[in-house]
Amino acid sequence: MELFLSSLYIAFFSWLILKLRFFKVESISSWFFVGVFFIKLLSALALTLIYTFYYTDRSTADIFKYFDDSKILFSAIHNNPLDYLKIVTGFDSDAPQLKPYYLDCNFWYKKFNYMLYNDNRTIIRFNAIVMLFSFGKFFVHNVFMSFLSFIGLMGIYKVFISKFEDKKWELLLVIFLLPSVLLWTSGTLKEGLVIFAFGLFFYSLWNMLNNKFTYIYIITCISMLFILLLAKYYVILCAIPGILFLLIKRFIKVKSNTIILLFSFAICFIGLLIGRKIGGSLDVINTLTLKHNDFVSFSLSLDKIGSLMDSSMLKPTIGDFLKHVPDALYKSLFKPFPWDMHNIMSVLPAIENIILILLIVLAFFNQSKYCSSKELLIFSFSFVLCLNILNGLIVPVFGALVRYKVPALPFLFASLICLIDFEQIKKLFHFSKK
Q1: Fewest CB within a 10 Å sphere: which of 65, 160, 240, 271?
Q2: For 196-216, how does the pLDDT look when each residue is reduced to its tens digit (9 = 90+)?
Q3: pTM score, two decimals?
Q4: Closest among 178, 226, 181, 177 to 200, alpha carbons compared
Q5: How many domains does the chain have?
């Protein structure tokens, strides 16, 4: 039954890729993108096998634990379909008759919520909705998530190739086929939802900023923003400086990109100071401090965790945060190195980081003299910078860090590819052969 249902939905999603205009790219066969979708499905299978045979505790495996909780919530549909609708939509979801379902779940309630929305519920609700189509068969959920994340990556890809058309194949490789992106966005995890929502949000916003105001783009932009706020709100927060830059660049005629970017960051910094004065969940500095320190405490409470990078605690002051920013950015961007590998899950990130360093060197010493969209690259590097600093400040563990930085990876690698003059490299290569 699981194989039949999975095959049925794979065939349907493949048909959509072949037929819908959104998936069409000039000079690239739609069948090629079907092949990319199948690679994502294989990645989802690999992730499932890893969490089945390598990390054998199902109760702590993210790919299974939210799925198991969703089964409990889905059972409400048999007793009262209206209760099920309340649970998955969030409308009147605090009704007293629903509490027994929540109490039976292991991850509906978080031990620490920092007065913020509990994003565990978003992925649990997603699984509860997919249950309508999967009849409780796990791999069907992987198929749905693989397709949704494929849509998000396609949105990012189409923005980049609209400005860097001569690098279609290189961009396809680094946006769709980075090992970490493949692995963590293809399984039933929050990262897949985040890539789906952020990719479509960015695609819609970019088109509207380029004079393509349509109801579809407006509705998509708003709805994806809503999903992002529920799935991982901090991802969209890290994009705010870049979004402000694009908006100012579009509507205010200022020539200097540097001045616009600095002004955008200044606005965000003032927002942080105001939030600190107000306090509560708006005090971002204090919230991040609590999250980091709780993460460290939890890691130290485990019997052994070989990927713990730093056990020091943060202080809830701006000065302490600024002091830790360089180290946080370094760890988030470049860790783990090959000598940091402690298990099979750290091998691919270590290889990616070697490739990243190589691309940075090539972009620095062999930069293309012509850039068709500095605005796109500035947005990308701004987003990458903010998300990696945030992740480096919060997450002290390699294993979690490689997942948390996934939304930034397509933008980072794609931007470096766009900066590199590959024609010059080819000329040097041919010259050396002579």
Answers
A1: 271
A2: 999 999 999 999 998 888 899
A3: 0.92
A4: 226
A5: 1
